[in-house]
Design brief:
34% of the residues lie in helices and 18% in strands. It has 394 residues and is of the alpha+beta class. It folds into 2 domains: 247 residues, Beta-lactamase, CATH 3.40.710; 110 residues, no CATH class. The strands form 5 sheets. An 8-stranded antiparallel sheet has the order 3-2-1-16-15-14-13-12, sandwiched between helices. Strands 4-9 form a two-stranded antiparallel sheet. The two termini are 13 Å apart. The C terminus is likely disordered. This is Beta-lactamase family protein. It holds the Pfam family Beta-lactamase.
Length: 394
């Protein structure tokens, strides 16, 4: 394990310097707790990053990126982040809408000049806001029934082809009942990967850029996220975490990375160091280390709570991309991600400027889910007690 942190004590009053020293001790103890939880949950590797008020305060790797070769996880280890991609896609969509002076109630189409409608309610338009909040009435029945994954390499299928095949009546995999709810758009919550894939396609139409290129130019380059990629090919030769899953006999085995054509919903690959910069900016009014990636106006719109029916019991409310919940009388926003061999989470607390990223290389079962929940609370408690001016160095 190699932890990175530094606590500034120069020019501090004696009691402030003492508080910072105590913070350093707490961070060291936190690392011990994280390692114990990792071992208990039998997770091969974990990477943790935390930011506060637009600055990195903690990053560390635990366990192995590859068990066979005993390759340790570091803050520079690349993980597939699964659905933690969605808050990044959502912010890109909202920024594009804002730059083009488009309302979130604008209708969305697969192709310019045509509308996409739920066949059960053909007169009801599907809007950006509905897609962003999983209330569009587009569901993932066919997306899960047809295995669109490509093991070991990037999918050759285009995003537009996926959308046309699943959502258009002329499509190869179209099913009115499996791709659309019976409820009209805007009335029922239903988590939708296909909805986020449609958002990515719409963003490309409006910006004239591939979503991969847009996020690279507007998010990743300004923040120095130089180990964040949309494709498996781009990670070749780099330090990538091997995914692991449990077989029916309980054996934990390595599996190949995989991809789908639906990259806006969950195909990003990144490091905890890079992602903490992005979510650190989201939690800090769009700014990380003096680099701005979003406006206060757009983020306030993203963080507005929306009323809707059908939200499952484990979620308190739905925002744009994010779910909200309360811990110790504070409001936190979260998004989790899962795929074969990976389990990830991102948390932001705009009220306090706190951001947290947790990446693992094992499929989620109950012990791993419980581990992430307990771990997030421990990190919140320590980092918020260290809520003073901080920076990180090797």
């Amino acid at each position: 394990m190699r932890t990175k942190w530094i606590i500034f004590t120069l020019f501090l009053q004696p009691w402030e310097a003492l508080a910072q020293t105590n913070c350093s001790v707490q961070l060291q103890d936190l690392s011990k707790d994280i390692e114990a939880l990792r071992v208990e949950a039998d997770i091969p590797g974990v990477a943790i990053g935390a930011a506060l008020n637009g600055e990195l305060v903690y990053e560390e790797g635990f366990g192995f990126a590859d068990k066979l070769h005993k390759t340790p996880v570091t803050p520079s280890t690349i993980f597939q982040i699964a659905s933690v991609t969605k808050p990044i896609t959502a912010l890109a969509v909202m920024e594009i809408a804002d730059k083009h002076l488009l309302e979130l109630e604008s209708s969305v189409a697969l192709e310019p000049g045509s509308l996409l409608a739920n066949p059960h309610h053909p007169s009801k338009e599907i809007t950006l806001l509905q897609l962003l909040t999983h209330t569009s009435s587009i569901q993932d029945g066919m997306y899960y029934e047809v295995d669109f994954r490509t093991p070991g390499q990037d999918s050759a299928m285009k995003l537009s082809e996926l959308l046309e095949d699943v959502l258009l009546e002329s499509g190869k995999y179209y099913s009115a009942d499996k791709s659309f709810l019976k409820s009209p758009p805007g009335e029922q919550w239903s988590y939708s990967n296909m909805g986020y894939n449609l958002l990515g396609n719409w963003a490309e139409q409006q910006s004239g850029l591939n979503l991969k290129d847009w996020t690279q130019k507007n998010f990743f380059e300004p923040l120095g996220m130089d180990h964040t990629f949309w494709t498996i090919a781009d990670t070749s030769g780099l330090e990538v975490a091997t995914p692991y899953q449990t077989l029916s006999d309980g054996q934990l085995v390595a599996v190949a990375q995989s991809s789908t054509p639906g990259y806006p919903a969950g195909m990003l690959r990144s490091t905890v160091s890079d992602l903490t910069k992005f979510f650190g900016a989201v939690a800090n009014s769009g700014v990380f280390m003096r680099e701005t990636i979003s406006s206060q106006k757009v983020l306030q719109e993203m963080f507005a709570e929306r009323s809707m029916s059908g939200i499952p019991d484990h979620l308190e409310s739905q925002l744009v991309a994010w779910n909200s919940y309360n811990y110790k009388k504070r409001s936190y926003l979260s998004h989790w991600g899962g795929n074969i061999g990976v389990y990830t989470a991102a948390y932001v607390a705009p009220e306090t400027g706190l951001a947290l990223v947790i990446l693992t290389n094992r499929s989620a079962e109950r012990p791993q889910i419980n581990m992430l929940k307990e771990l997030s609370k421990k990190i919140y408690d320590v980092v918020e007690r260290c809520n003073t001016k901080t920076a990180v160095a090797s």
